Amino acid sequence: MDKPPRDPAVADVAPEATYLTGYDEQHLITYLRLLDAEADQADWQDVARLVLHRDPAVDPERTRQCWMSHLARAHWMTSHGFRHLLRGGAPN
Predict the structure, then answer these.
(1) What pLDDT digit, counting tens, does each position of 14-26 carry?
(2) Distance between CA 59 and CA 61 in Å, rounded?
(3) pLDDT single digits (tens) 29-82
(4) Contact call for residues 54 and 34 (beta carbons, < 8 A)
(5) pTM surpassing 0.70?
(6) How far apart are CA 18 and CA 44, in angstroms?
(7) Are 37 and 47 in contact (CB under 8 A)?
(8) Distance of CA 50 to CAs 25, 64, 69, Å?
(9) How far is it, in rounded angstroms, from Cα 51 to Cα 63?
(10) What are the backbone dihedrals phi and psi of residue 3, each rounded to the nearest 5 degrees, phi first?
(11) What is the rounded distance in angstroms from the CA atom of residue 54 to the CA atom of residue 30?
């Protein structure tokens, strides 16, 4: 696996696959930033602006869905996805 980009473009919805995807590999840093913000009890709107590059003032429902989707995927990575990384990453 190549080193993930620091600040990749973020889709409206994170993957829901039961396996690691290329999107997941590209967004490992994004997922870590979301988990760190959650641990710090940061306001989701601030996190959406800084990490996901979404403005909740412009489209609050879509922005919140994006944040929730990516945070859920970040949690999936900590419980399941990391195993796929240890086995070599996303399938080609």
Answers:
(1) 999 998 999 999 9
(2) 6
(3) 999 999 999 999 999 999 999 999 999 999 999 999 999 999 999 999 999 887
(4) no
(5) yes
(6) 25
(7) yes
(8) 20, 13, 16
(9) 12
(10) -65, 130
(11) 13
Residues 6+ apart with CB under 8 A from 4: 25, 26, 27, 28, 29
Contact residues for 31 (Cβ-Cβ < 8 A; gap 6+): 24, 70, 73, 74, 77
**Which distant-in-sequence residues (6+ apart) come within 8 Å of 74 by Cβ?**
30, 31, 32, 34, 35
> Token pair of 23, please?
């999107």
- 19 contacts: CB under 8 Å, gap ≥ 6: 84, 90, 91
The answer to whether 81 and 16 are in contact (CB under 8 A) is: no
